[in-house]
Amino acid sequence: MSETPQPQQGPRLREALRGIPAYKPGKPAAGGDGAPAYKLSSNENPYPPLPGVLEAAVAAADSFNRYPDMGVSALVAELAQRFGVPESHIATGTGSVGVAQSLLQATSGPGDEVVYAWRSFEAYPIIVQISGATSVQVPLTEEDGHDLDAMLAAVTERTRLIFVCNPNNPTGTAVRRDELERFLDAVPADVLVVLDEAYCEFVRDGEVPNGIDLYRDRPNVCVLRTFSKAYGLAGLRVGFAVAHEPVAAALRQTAVPFGVSQLAQDAAVASLRAERELLRRVDALVDERTRVVAALTAQGWTVPDSQANFVWLRLGERTLEFAAACEAAGVVVRPFAGEGVRVSIGEVEANDLFVETAGVFRKGL
Length: 365
Ligand SMILES: Cc1ncc(COP(=O)(O)O)c(C=O)c1O
Prior knowledge:
By secondary structure, the chain is an alpha/beta fold. 38% of the residues lie in helices and 15% in strands.
């Protein structure tokens, strides 16, 4: 193979980027002509911001001409107090996916391996490939959950980082305390385990651990959280990690300077202060999840136990057909061709319409 530069081809880009899968955002709802149009494709919170949160954001908008607080000090202080952790253990970023990308930058490069379950959050293969490291994808169990034994068996000398998505996107299944602790105890101490808890506020299974309890005496565990889901700030891009010093410090080193806007910082602080009301909304979404799962089960679907704000239907070959039927009815869902459909829990009317559509489709199977 010739290494001769070919000027007419433009700048040379990193080979690692070749064939990178594109991140597919949840499709927006089309609507029009008075037709209903609900977006259940991105696991967003359907509620508008709480009043105090909106006011904080509007007030911050007054100083757009200034850079934000680079240390994100008010938010970090608030989070440290809430979780009872040192401020130095918190690192923020542009959404938890931004923090995840920094974690890879800090740990992994060409020749290294990153282990995660598959199917899981679709950003993992993308950000791993960008880092130059190699993805090691471990299939989910028959029940659509993490196979932690198989993940452990996949760890080699090259492994630098393991993602455990708990609950898992897109299947909603969650790993329980005993099995997770056993796994963490067995992973080599020099491998970073990232507990991605983007949906933890929706967990109602008492056996599912809070990652922050697990990180405390484990220097190789990092917990990822986000304000995008339960807190309803997806559009503002703010997430954070809780990890011991060398990891948290590395995250601060690799973060994009001024990545989290002042608007996002202030809105996040305000939403933590409005948490009681906010979590009431989360409770309502969990009630809706229970109702949707019961209705789908009564229709004859097998639905994995979801601990998140979405449900998963394994439709195989019929996936795209089902998604098209939902769209025609006015509900946009998130299909994974050949595998299944992930449907966010949204407003009551949207959930009703989805359940009705699923019932009609089921009869035709
Ligand atoms: C498991 C998981 N982690 C992280 C994220 C990223 O969220 P954000 O970057 O908005 O914080 C998502 C978003 O869909 C997710 O599903």
